[in-house]
Every structure is written in C-alpha cells, then in structure tokens.
Amino acid sequence: MTARRATQQRLDPLGTLAAWPLAPAVAAIVLCNTVIATVLQSDQVISPLLATLAVLAMAAAAGTLVIATQPAFSPFGTRMHVAMLGFAVLGYLLEQVSRWGNNLLVQDDFGPVGIGLLLLALAPYRPWRQIMGSGLLASAVAVAVTVPQAPSFQINVPVAVFAIVAVTQILAPTAAGAAYSRRIVKSILSWQTDARRAMVARTEEARGQVARAVVEQQVTALKSGVIPFLSELLERGTVTAIDIARAGQLAADVRRSLVAEIDRTWLDSVATRERTALAERGTPGLLVVADPEHRATMFLAEQRAATAALIGALCAAPGFDPHSLVVQIAGSAVLVPGAPSVPAGPTPLGQLAAAAPTQVDTITIQAALDLPPRRVRALLRPYLGVIRVVFQNVRITVRRPSLTIEFDGVRDTSQAPASLEPLATPATPAGVRAHKAPRQVR
Amino acid sequence: MSLGLPGHLVQATLSRALARASHWYGLICLIGALVSVLALSMFPVTDRLQITIAAILGMGALLALLARWRTVPLTLAYLILGAACVYLYTSSILGMPDVFPSSDMFLIALPKMALIMVGGAGSGALIGVLWSTAGFVLAEAAATLAVAQTTVPDRPDLFTIVTYLILVGVMLLDGLTRRTGRAAQPAIHRAVQDDQSRILRHDFDVRAIALMHDTTLNQLVSVARAKPGPLSRGLEAGLRETLQTLAERDWLTHVDERTAATPAGSDGWLASAVFRAIDRSRDRGLVVDITGDKDALGRLDPESDRELGLAVQQCLVNVLLHAGIATAEVVIDADDQNVSVMVLDAGRGFMEAETGSDRLGLRQSVRKRIERLGGSVVVWSRPGAGTSVLLTLPAPVAAPASGEVAP
C-alpha cells in the first residue's frame, strides 16, 4: 500500500481494534446533541418536517460511522466515508433550511459540531488527506449557508464572525483527526521499516546455519543408500545388472523425496510446526492441509504471516480439538491462455503475453473449539482483525463446537510471479501424500 | 503491513499522535480567534484589541514550538501565556458594549479550547490528562476573572467543558484499553519472523534440490542406463565428480551463493558457466554446435551466469539421456535487456503432458532456476520433431563505466 492511502487501521489493525469504542461514543454524542439542540431550539424551527428529516439524516450519518467501524466491517472503505459525510452534510443543510430566516445563533446549530465530531472519529480509519478534504468541503458548505442568513442572527457582529464560528466547529476537530491519522501512520511506517530491517538482519545472521542444515539434511538422506552404492561402483569399476536395477530404484527414491519436498508449501510447514507444538504439549493432533493446486505459494508475505498466526492461535486455544483442524484453499479457475502451440522454429518471446484475469483464492479453516461462541469470537478478534486487512470477505460461523472461518485472497495474475505451473502432487497432510500425479514435465 | 506496533511503543506513539492532534485542534481555534478579533476590530475598535492580537500570536507561536519540542518548560510557558491570552481575549471581546448577550459564546471558548489542547510533555495517558486539566482550570479561571469585570452575565461554557471531557475520555481510552490485543501482537510479529525464515529455508531447499538433481540423480540415471560391463570413461568421470562434490560439501557455497566465487575474468565467453557446461557435455560425448553472440554471456552477473550454466547443462544432459541423438545446437542471442540461450536437438522429442510424473530435470533444474532469477523458459517439443528449449534471463546492457574499471 502506498503511504498516501495508508491508515492506522490497515497498518495496525490491533491498535485500531482497541480504540473502536470511540466511534459509538462519538456517534452517541452527535446524536444526543442533535436531538437536544432540536428540542431546545424548537421555537426557531419553521418547518418541523425538515427539522425531523435533519435529525434522521444526522442519525443516519452516526449510524454509518458505527457500522463502518465495526471490526466485522473492516477496513473502513471510501464508500462508507462518502456515505457518512453525505448524510451529515445533508442533515446540516436540512437543519439550516428548517429554520431559515429564524435562526438566532450559529454556535448552537448541531450541523457543524456534528460534522466535525464525525470526521474526528475517522482518524484511525481513513487517510489524513481524505479526512482533511472532507472537512474543507463541509466548511465550504458551512460558509455558503451561514453568510446568507446573517440578517436573522441575534448578535450584531460582522458576517465573517458567523462564518468563523461555523467553520471552526468543523475544522478544528477535522484537523485534529487528520493530524492524528498522519502522525500515527508516519510512526507506524517508520517503525515497520526498522522492524523489517532488524528482521532481515536476523534472517541474514541465520543464513549460513540454515544453508548448512539444508545441505546436512540432503547428505544425510544420501548417506544410507546412494553414496555407498556409488563409491562401491567406482571402486569395482564394473556395472552389473543388479547395479543397474538398484540404480534405477535409488533414482526413483531420490526423485520421489525431492518431488515431495518441492511441493511442500509454507502452509505445510506451518502445519508441521503446529503439529510439533501440539505434540510437545502432550496432545498430538492431526492437522490437514488441502491445497491441491498449491495456491498457497501465491500468497503475499503478510497474508502468509496472518494466516499462520491465526492457525497458531486456534491450535493454542483452550478447548481446541487437536484432530479437528482442516485448512483448505480452493479458488476460481485460472483463465490462463492456452498452452503455447509448437512453432516451426524459434519465435521471439512475448507470445505468451495474454489477458490477466483476477484470481480468487478462498481459504477455509475449520476447527472444533469447545468454547462458548462469545469467547471464541473474543479470542479470535485480534487475529481476524489482521486477516480482514490482508484478505477480503471474511466469514465466520460459530456453531459450538464447530468453527468455520472463510476468507478470500484476490490477486491480479498479471503481477504474479511466473510459477503458476501446477506442481506434481496434491498437498495432503505432510507425509501422507496421495499418489495422484496427473502432469509433469520431464 | 499487518505488522502493528509492539506493546512497548504503543504508549509513546499514541501519546505523540494525540498531542499532534491536540496541537492542530488548538491551532485552528487560535486562528479562528485571531480572525474573529481582526473582523471585530473593523467594528468600533476597543483599546485592548492590539494587545489581544499580540497575545494570540504569541500563544500560537508557543503552540508551534510545543508541537516541535514537547518539553516541560515550553508546556508551562504555553499554559501561563495561554491563561493571560484567555483573560485578554475574553475581556476585550465581551468588553465590546451591547454585542454579546452572555459569556457562553463559542467565540469566547476558542482560546480556552486551545489551552486545553496543550498536549504537554511526557507520554502516558495520565500525564496528558493532567496537563489538559491544568489547561482547563487555568482557562476557566482566567475567563471567569475577565467576565467578572464586564457587564455580561457569566454562564457555564459548555463548549469548553464538553471538549475537555471528550479529550480526557479519548486519552484514557487510548491509554487503558490497549490491553485486548496484547497477546496477539507478539504472535503476529513472530509469525512474520517465522515466515521470513521459512522463505529463506525454502529458497535454500529449492537450490539444494536442483543441485542434488544435477549431481546424484543424474548419476544414478546414467548408471541405470548403462550396459553391464566395465564402467565407461564418461560414467567413471561422472561418478568420481559426484562423489567428490558430495564429500567436499562445497555445494554449501552453491546453496548459499553469498559465499560464491568472484566474477568471470576478461573473456566473458570462456569464463562463463555456459561454456563450462557445454565443455563438460562434450567430455561426455555430445557434439555441440555453438552459434550466436557468445560474448553477450559476459554481461550476466555471477549468480545468473552460474544458474544459466547449470540450466544449460541440464538441457544438454536431457539431450544425452532422452533425445537418442548425440548432437545438439546452442544458439546464444542477446538484445538490450535480455540474454537468451536456446538448446536445440533433432532427437526424439516428447509431449510435456506425457512425461513421467516424477521427472524433475526440466521443471526443477531448468524452469525453477531460471524463473527464480526473473527469467523465462519456453519449451517446444513434439514426439519425433526434436526439442527446443529457450532460456531467457534479464541482463541489461551495463553503462560503459561500470565493469571497465582498471584493477
């Protein structure tokens, strides 16, 4: 994401989650102020119908804020932002029209205060430019409707002062919200840069060790069969029919283990790790990963991390049935252009370029969690908060004890790395791989 | 992106962001107050307007300083000057005869709200609340004093009170309710770190597997295809090389290319790994014709060069093992952006879809290698019509200066 469109909600979902009670509180204040102002100044109202509609529009704006900030609706989108602003400005306009020519004071109108507070509440959810822009737009509206009413106002001061009152009521909270949004995004981004650097450094330190471990693993696998066989062959200097058969068999073995290793995705590694953790806790379990098309390989780093964290949280949850976890990844068919035909001779590259369809991966995580649904939701809320930011369409079904979490990963295949080629074997629980292997190149 | 703030930074970061928000709120209020005073001074001028303007400007300047350096002295200075400003402002605005009916005007609340929004030094919800409370008390005291000297009736200023309550509420909420995500945030950080390690490990695995394939598996296949009897010269050489490689473990450095050898010498072609791969295949009895722009291979960086060499070697091994023919052609081509190598043979050919499910060579040793470096692999083959494999790697033409530096 670009820094321009970054919000606290996208960068720090958990922090935003903690601050979410602010939104209903602000909505309640706005609503109370609207109703109280309308009742107390009922003598100024000329059109009760319009005044009622104004209250309703303001209530709709407050309601939009509450709904859009709900954790289940995250992230707070532009559409909701525009809807909220639209309702609030509409409420303001209706209020002004309902008492046009009979309005005694600007400062007790609920419109500007309401708009300002609602925009302030957007601080953790929207980019600062959009908050500020909305505030400036509403201020322009405020000037436009305040100045013509100057003759009816009770106080005898220059008309600019009325405009200042209305505009300040909108702009002060808006500027505060925008400043908060900008500052917190900046802080988080700069911390993330540091954190990434530290993480890369730490990984870099482990580099030699990891490489050694990988080599060790491969050589150990060969030591029992292949290496003695080859050295004996070299020593003897002749090949027998038995050697030939044995070589064929060893080759098949090695190849099989290599294929299995290549087809392992990060998701299999996560499952393996959780399985080990469960076994260490004395409750060995069975975690099933079903990703026949190896879609997991296409996940982005943050999607991988969020999914791994969610799976880890589920496995560590109280009441988790260690034999119940199933992670599935399915998706819509890829609209890859037909396989390249065989040309008569060498042809220039680029003939493979074709339309890049959008690809949707649906991840389904099922588990049995013997907890009251409310506790399940509370337990998973932070993890799902992160999942919601990096995936789309998060659906949760809790029917004690079964729990189903589904979410979609949408990606643009034109930007995807060129590794869409199907892998040899379908992914099943590691080590229990099926023998269905439809397609392979030599 | 999902890398939220860790627990120990939350307090300081939030406190800073809230202070910044307060300062902007205060600044807008002061601007509003200033413009109001200016607008009113065009009306019948009161004597105190100039000094009021000066006080507002001073308060704004201190606020700007405070936004930059949140220190205790600046905070105290702001509170004191602010209280004075509130007094001057209130008395000069309300001192205007017969303009304002009472003291509970939004206009009057402007500098008071700015004073509440002190966003003072220190981090932590409680300290913020304390500074704001000090601002609130000072503002109300100064305003009450000023109102008492005018004829305007004193009424409670709801704007200031509500602003104060909302600010305190926000600070307390942000300071106290952070706890919910406390357990989850470290878990997510760990997941990100684990993911990094996993990716590194996977990367090494892929490379190790490709190398395994090149050495061990190819050798086993060669043995499996040999005729009973004494070892042929090629087979013996191959066996020796493989065992040596496995024993020396120097493919550790191949797996982790950071420790790899220095780049090629002056002659790009003779030093290139592609040349060595072809040379090795010739040792094994393959006749290889080379055409095209050989020197272009010198443009490849050491890693690309080595990987392309290994990929070409695998293609040639495939010709030896599968094509049923002992001649192959290698065509090297280059444009400004890419270097490509095509390996052609007129042998048996194959259908990609019909090859064995457990075959790795083309997929792992060729395709994955090249694609990992951002290149592409295209295979044209049909039973009876031979095989062509086109390997393309990005290798932009270097600027003339680089690479030509004298030693």
UniProtKB/TrEMBL annotation, chain A:
Transmembrane segments annotated in the record for this chain: 20-40, 46-68, 80-98, 135-153, 159-180
Disordered, as annotated region: 416-442
Keywords: Membrane, Transmembrane, Transmembrane helix
Compositionally biased residues, Basic residues: 433-442
Record protein name field: Uncharacterized protein
UniProt organism field: Cryobacterium arcticum
Lineage: Bacteria, Bacillati, Actinomycetota, Actinomycetes, Micrococcales
Automatic annotation (TrEMBL), chain B:
Record has Metal-binding as a keyword: no
One BP term from GO: phosphorelay signal transduction system
Single GO molecular function: ATP binding
Domain (Histidine kinase/HSP90-like ATPase): residue spans on this chain: 306-396
TM helices/strands, residue ranges: 24-44, 51-69, 75-94, 115-138, 158-176
Record-linked Pfam families: HATPase_c (PF02518)
Keywords: ATP-binding, Kinase, Membrane, Nucleotide-binding, Transferase, Transmembrane, Transmembrane helix, Two-component regulatory system
Name of the protein this chain belongs to: ATP-binding protein
Taxonomic path: Bacteria, Bacillati, Actinomycetota, Actinomycetes, Micrococcales
